[in-house]
Amino acid sequence: MQDLTTLEFSVRLATGIGCGALIGMERQWRARMAGLRTNALVAAGATLFVLYSEAVGDPGSPTRVASYVVSGIGFLGAGVIIREGASIRGLNTAATLWCSAAVGVLAASGRLALALLGTAAILAIHLVLRPASRLVDRAPQGNDDTTTAVTLHVRCDRGDEHHIRALLIQLLSSADPRLAGLRIHRTEDGVTALEAEVTIDGPPNAPMEQLVTRLSLEPGIHDLHWRSPTRTTGTTGHGALL
After folding, report:
1. CA terminus-to-terminus distance, the chain
2. Chain segment 181-213, per-residue pLDDT in tens
3. Which fold would CATH assign to domain 147-236?
4. Would the pLDDT of 86 be above 70?
5. Within a 10 A sphere around the Cβ of 196, how many other Cβ atoms?
6. Which residues sit opposite 71 in a β-bridge?
């Protein structure tokens, strides 16, 4: 087997990290738990492991290391999967980390064009199939095919604004309920008021109560309530219904 030169090592490593970073940018833009740095690190780690086996010179070593990467990345992916009541979040993030590792393995093995093609396919899945999945989720069922507009009001400390805003965008990035608009007002007393316009297919009570319950667990929130054309309800930062 031909020795792996420093230039080849650098090019393959840079390709693996770059592909992982591209995947991570899309995840970061959507305020997911595993963003740019996490996906870049996963791709870098997978690339380095396989590059090490290439540098050793054992013809069968890269294949064995790649199989270990596939199984090992499962433990990292399991850490980003969160169960919230009857729903489970983080499956897409875990699958994306797995794909980032696969892209790193391709780059390390010298298949740079295939690594770029794999990166494009992963990004296409997130960017193209995401609207398609929403169309499927919005298919009317029974008599609950009406769309309700709801306004969610959140007041939090100025220091917690970034975290609360990112969490709100993440919770409202699913098919239902979904974020239609967000307004931010900062007062002179160090409090930030967030007003989110939310649309829901069908009755809003159950999904909004679940959303309010989740947000009420954050310590920086002072006031939290939602309004629809037919009902007003909510919770304070301490979890008591208004």
Report:
1. 72
2. 888 888 888 899 999 888 887 778 888 888 888
3. Alpha-Beta Plaits (3.30.70)
4. no
5. 23
6. none
Indicate the pLDDT class of residue 88, thresholds 50, 70 and 90: low
**Tokens 């975290």 correspond to what residue?**
163
Q: Which residues contact 162 (CB under 8 A, 6 or more apart)?
A: none
Domain ranges of the chain: 6-137, 147-236
Packing angle between helix 91-108 and helix 36-56, nearest 10 degrees?
30
Residue 114 has pLDDT above 60, yes or no: yes
Residues forming beta bridges with residue 198, ordered by sequence position: 150, 179
Facing residues of 98 across strands?
A: none
CA-based nearest residue to 73, from 33, 42, 109 = 42
Q: Is the Cα torsion angle 109, 115, 117, 122 positive or negative in sign? A: positive
Q: Are 171 and 179 in contact (CB under 8 A)?
A: no
- DSSP letters for 187-214: -TTSEEEEEEEEEEES-SHHHHHHHHHH
